[in-house]
User: Fold this.
Amino acid sequence: MADLLSDDEIDAQLPDTWDREGDEITRTYEFDDYLRGVNFAQMVGEIAEAQFHHPEIIIGYEEVEIRLTSHEEGGITDADIEMAELIDAEHSA
Ligand SMILES: C[C@H](O)[C@H](O)[C@H]1CNC2=NC(N)=NC(=O)C2=N1
Assistant:
């Protein structure tokens, strides 16, 4: 079980593209059309399965919101930060 990160650790490690909201980190990605967002959500799901760490994925019109927290630990851990970095890398690919 990973350790919960301190507020300072979260501030230091959270990618600039993400926001912290309490016990979650979140980012909303914009897309040119709805199905590109749907496809992105699929890719996020595949990353989540590979990492065995699963975000909430909210598919909207031309946008996808990702929300991450470590449920078992009850807050934000390294696993959430790593997922944010992997998802950003996928989005930039
Ligand atoms: C039993 C538990 O659900 C699993 O160990 C994994 C699955 N994916 C998970 N995803 C997230 N975000 N947090 C977890 O604690 C978590 N636990």
The domain at 23-92 is CATH 3.30.1360.20 (Gyrase A; domain 2). The first strand starts at residue 19 and ends at 21.
